Amino acid sequence: TSAKEHLGQTVGEFDSLDGVTALSDVVLVDQSPIGRTPRSNPVTYIKAWDEIRRLFSEQPLAVERRYSAGNFSFNVAGGRCEDCKGAGQVEIEMIFMTDVFVRCDACNGTRYRSEMLDVRINGRNVSEVLELTVDEALRLFIRQDKLGQILWYLQQVGLGYLRLGQPAPTLSGGE
User: Quick one: DSSP state of residue 133?
Assistant: First the structure.
């Protein structure tokens, strides 16, 4: 097998590896982006948004109006703003320059139809929850074990400052 010398250690292919039975898990951490669209964000990537949408659907007003968790998705028709398709912004095509994005006039950047914003958890609607940082969301959802555990992972790796709805294209490779 071929191997190279790097910082005094041999690296490359080997015939065997001692101690592999002591490993319980191996995780590849790279710097590839988690998503390329403004709708992709940290909480959709780690599946915390599914849990938050479920919690919104269980609120008394949502039950009364027969909203499902799907109504609180900004990716599908139902509760999202149809003018911007849940992006909160619309693209303006510039003929000879780079296209620009501006806040959606229909939803004022909230991503949702106005009636969806009536449903609240601890005084916050679904759009306001997307604006929370991971640290703030952990405090808001302190009694939600499953959601708290998912968000805790982000906090533990130093990403507590990220907004839940922060568009993935704005994240650095390290984030």
Answer: B
DSSP 31: -
How many Cβ atoms are within 10 Å of 22's Cβ, its own excluded? 6
Per-residue pLDDT tens digits for 103-118:
999 999 999 999 999 9
pLDDT in tens, 74-89: 888 889 999 988 888 8
The tokens for 165 are 């709805």
Q: Name 166's Cβ contacts closer than 8 Å, sequence gap at least 6.
A: 41, 42
pLDDT digits (tens, 9 = 90+) for 93-106: 888 888 788 999 99
Nearest to 49 by CA among 147, 121, 152: 147
Q: Which among 34, 133, 126, 131 has a CA at the least distance from the CA of 81? A: 126
Asked if residue 7 has pLDDT above 60, the reply is no
Three-state DSSP class for residue 90: strand
Helix (H, G, I), strand (E, B) or coil at 100: strand
